[in-house]
Amino acid sequence: MSMIYRLQCSLCGEEYSSADVKYNCPVDGGNLDVHLDLETLKSNLSMDMILNSEDRSMWRYLPLLPVEDPGYEGTPLRRVGWTPVYRPTQLLAERGLTQAWIKDESPNPTASFKDRASALMVAKGRELGAEVIITASSGNAGAALAGMAAAVGQKTVILVPKNAPPAKIAQLLVYGAKVALVDGTYDDAFDLTLQAAEEYGWYCRNTGYNPFTAEGKKTAAFEIWDQVMLPNQLDRPLNIFVSVGDGNIIAGMHKGFKDLQALGWLKYMPRMFGVQADGSAAVAQAYKDEVELITPVHADTLADSISVDLPRDGLRALRAATQTGGAYLTVSDAEILQAIGELGKMGIFSEPAAAASFAGMVKAAAVGLITKDEPMLALVTGSGLKDVQAAMQAAGQAPIISPDLDALRKAI
Question: CB 3.0 to 4.6 Å from 355: which of 40, 163, 299, 339, for a disulfide?
Fold first, then answer.
């Protein structure tokens, strides 16, 4: 049932078959949208077939994904997704937020949201017979690809900026990927992977380049619908806050909600809010200027996972907000660090980029972009263990004391 119907350019609208085009539109370089044969799905699939599934992973939604069942039961590849949604009512109520949820992606096998795209990309790569899968990453996407590939014995090459957090680089190496640290930016690493994929015939997983990455990320939209919207019988749109770097997460989630809407399973289209760091806000600037032109910036933020000069999926990320009645807003590094601390008090350990969404949700409610009693959800995309140095900035240093009660009393 999950056959691909067509690929369509998000810029010019040109359509292609999956056999003819592998990556971006050959006419203008636009990102390609994957369109499933929804009419066939409607005839063969019911909402209850999904909701009654006993699968508690992203593969619960396999009939809505453009890939064959990858198998590999009992491996981390099959564990991705179905991440928890929390509602720490008392702590959120301190800010006057009465219908707020937090979806925490850190329980994924490599501790970030990026496992969703990488699991699907490894499945697709195996389906296509790829010898090597290559990607550029600021850390999380690479770790996710390396981990998912290790689970099935797939060869990978990962290019990462040399200033990526050491914990993320360590993950890549432990999983056995071939890793090279690029003396440059994420954008430099991205461009080099395209050259290498072309030269050696490798399959490129790059976010905002390979159309199937968004298809993996849309599974988070299915889960929010499944875990929050349906059981709580929301009578108005849910406001969803997503940290935005290259833009593929929010674009993929928007695609997921559009798929549900096309199937007739979605009562209210959620409002999508993109949150960028002040120092890496190319999409937010386009939103402010009311143009569909993403102008590169010189990214400078401690939130490395959303530190991007040129968002490779910027246009679709922008449309995720403009087409749903949402918005874009920016937060400072100081607000991000504060959000790490606040999430910590709720039992959620977040890396900087992941905490940006929560900082944005709090800010949106404070400035009246949304009302405090509206339903809202912040997507927390990665574990604080990914960047312990930033966590220490947020939490401060613990005192060193002598081993006696008097010293302990003074310290606490």
Answer: 339
